[in-house]
TrEMBL record:
UniProt-listed Enzyme Commission number(s): 1.1.2.3
Keywords for this protein: Oxidoreductase
Cofactor: FMN
Biological classification of the source: Bacteria, Pseudomonadati, Pseudomonadota, Gammaproteobacteria, Enterobacterales
Domain of life: Bacteria
InterPro entries in UniProt: Aldolase_TIM (IPR013785), FMN-dep_DH (IPR000262), FMN_HAD (IPR037396)
The keyword Oxidoreductase appears for this protein: yes
Name of the protein described by the UniProt record: L-lactate dehydrogenase
GO biological process, one term: aerobic respiration
FMN hydroxy acid dehydrogenase domain location: 1-165
Species per Swiss-Prot/TrEMBL record: Klebsiella pneumoniae
Keyword Transferase: no
Molecular function per GO: L-lactate dehydrogenase (cytochrome) activity; L-lactate dehydrogenase (NAD+) activity
SUPFAM superfamilies found in the cross-reference section: FMN-linked oxidoreductases (SSF51395)
Amino acid sequence: MFQPPAIIAKPLVVVCPLPFDYIDGGAVAENTMNANAAELASVALRQRVLCGAGEPTLATTILDAPWAMPVALGPVGATGMYARRGEVQAARAASRAGIPYTLSTVSVCSIEEVASHASGALWSQLYVLKDRGYMRNALERAWAAGMKNPGIYRRYANPRLAVSR
């Protein structure tokens, strides 16, 4: 995957290795990450100019709502470790871009804080956990903060944290 050195080098100066590895790396041997990078590298885009296709737009509809482009800002666990009020900043950036923001189950900022600062669509990730009371509480808090179903989605993941090498 193309990673400009200037972009990668800067976080090394301001972030300690553990959080940087969490963002920059994949799990164990990084097989999935490397396969995804190889797949992306195999995509060839063919430029077409002066074809009379009209004014281009990325606008689309996701979950019956209009969006500026077919993208949602996905959850990044503990964003607040990387920037002060990181989840709030990310939600505001997504709003400015006209796309939904998805708050991580393991966010640093609370659901209520992010919702009070977000002007755009706010979704919430919810891990499937053994503690059903915690899950129920998270759903109730999300709904009370104005997040609407089906903007809340479930994620099934390996119960172990990724191992970075």
